[in-house]
Automatic annotation (TrEMBL):
Source organism per UniProt: Microtetraspora glauca
Pathway involvement of the protein, from the record: Lipid metabolism
Superkingdom classification of source: Bacteria
Protein name (database record): trans-2-enoyl-CoA reductase (NAD(+))
Organism lineage string: Bacteria, Bacillati, Actinomycetota, Actinomycetes, Streptosporangiales
One Pfam family hit: Eno-Rase_FAD_bd
Length: 400
């Protein structure tokens, strides 16, 4: 491919192409917001394995770890390379920029593109960790995936985002071709037991535990090892579709897995935790019915009081490294979502949700911000990027 103009086009919240320059700029802008912490007396940079490092919370954890604590290690994600017709996925370009950031800041960071659920990827990553670092201090598990093949049975499991037990009727936000927001009502049928079980197979704690098993079997767990998997609780407005639905069942499994792993890792002086993060606009979250509306109303209510994935990830690293005390709830989960579940925030968003009609939606929800955030997931609408300049999409994956 040669340099060409790359414009946003697509269907709904899914765009066909990503802008390499915009994706790179997002990473450098994130890094520029992070204040480095120099820890005296520390001989070596901490080693982290971050699974889901190219997007959303995993990307934020990677950038925050590198920029704040000079973390080194391996990032794993699953991205599509450029083809003759299409650019690569946005995470491909963000990974190139993250690798450059690591290099510029002296962090030895390798990025692997592969399916985290397979044994072959685990073998490759662990081999890399073993040869390059000899062990791991932190494993951050931030995968959001639609399907998983169980490596033991070979069965393919598809996750669904549905309520459990009863049909759910919810308001939802859609945008037409010219970006005009429309408030609609949709009905989502309840999942079958098999669909719920499949969702738990994909998004529950099984694969996280397999990573810990593999690290343990490879002798790669360092003293004081900490692993964190990301979870979500959210508002009563979204609970039927999220926390009380199929994904919520998977999150419950993930949280139970943390306690099983935690007991085992205690032998190494290690910890397994979940971190409950706040709502954010990501590729994974925009697929959830009603979340676009909820997040747009939340933004209107809180403005920049919404804590970004980057800010939450800085908090997470501060807590994991002991720079700040762990902020956990009675179930031992790290809570980075307190700003979202704050009573005043929930009252404000509930009032807006209830008042929202097709006529009032423009006044109650920050739909312009939401639409731009979706475009930024693909590297568009990034301030400072000149989209009238041709851009080369055929960029290689960073050398490992
Ligand atoms: N977005 C939110 O509002 C929110 C809130 C709280 C918690 N979380 C949790 O954060 C985690 C990450 O979600 P996100 O919203 O950041 O998602 P995302 O879609 O932005 O990123 C998903 C990441 O997973 C990687 N990935 C997907 N399938 C993979 C596979 N098979 N192998 C390796 N990597 C794979 C992708 O490459 C990407 O890096 C999830 O556990 C999610 O539930 C999200």
């Amino acid at each position: 491919m040669t340099a060409r103009l790359i414009q946003p086009s697509g269907r709904g919240f899914l765009l066909f192409d990503a802008h390499p320059g915009g994706c790179a700029r997002i990473v450098t802008d994130m890094a520029a917001q992070v204040q480095p912490v120099t820890r005296s007396g520390e001989r070596e940079r901490p080693v982290a394995l971050i699974i889901g490092s190219s997007a959303g919370y995993g990307l934020a954890a990677t950038v925050a770890g590198i920029a704040r604590y000079g973390v080194q290690g391996v990032g794993l994600c699953f991205e599509r390379p450029p083809t003759t017709r299409r650019t690569a996925t946005a995470g491909w370009y963000r990974t190139i920029a993250t690798a450059t950031l690591a290099q510029e800041t002296g962090s030895d960071f390798a990025f692997v593109n592969g399916d985290a659920f397979t044994d072959a990827t685990k073998d490759d990553v662990l081999d890399l960790v073993s040869k390059r670092f000899g062990g791991i201090d932190y494993l951050i598990y931030s995968v959001a995936a639609p399907r998983r093949t169980d490596p033991v049975t070979g069965a393919l499991h598809q996750s669904v985002i549905q309520p459990i037990g009863a049909e759910h009727v919810t308001k939802t936000l859609e945008f037409d071709g010219d970006g005009t927001p429309h408030l609609k009502e949709i009905r989502v049928q309840p999942a079958t037991d098999a669909e719920t079980a499949d969702t738990v197979k994909v998004m529950g704690g099984e694969d996280w535990a397999r990573w810990v098993d593999a690290l343990e079997a490879g002798g790669l767990i360092r003293p004081g090892f900490t692993t964190v998997a990301l979870s979500y609780i959210g508002s009563h407005l979204t609970s039927a579709i999220y926390r009380a639905g199929t994904i919520g069942a998977a999150k419950l499994h993930l949280e139970r897995t943390a306690s099983v792993l935690g007991d085992r890792l205690g032998d190494y002086g290690g910890r397994a935790l979940t971190s409950v993060n706040g709502a954010a606009v990501t590729q994974a979250s925009t697929a959830i019915p009603g979340i676009a509306l909820y997040v747009s109303l939340l933004r209107d209510a809180l403005g920049t009081g919404m804590s970004s994935p980057l800010a939450q990830s800085v908090d997470l690293w501060d807590q994991l490294t002991g720079t700040a005390p762990l902020d956990t709830d009675e179930q031992g989960r790290i809570r980075l979502d307190r700003w979202e579940l704050d009573e005043a925030a929930q009252t404000a968003v509930t009032e807006r949700w209830e008042a929202a009609t097709p006529d009032t939606i423009g006044d109650l929800a920050d739909t312009g911000w939401f639409r731009d955030e979706v475009r930024r997931l693909y590297g568009f609408e990034v301030p400072g990027v000149d989209y009238s300049v041709p851009c080369e999409p055929d960029l290689p994956w960073p050398a490992v």
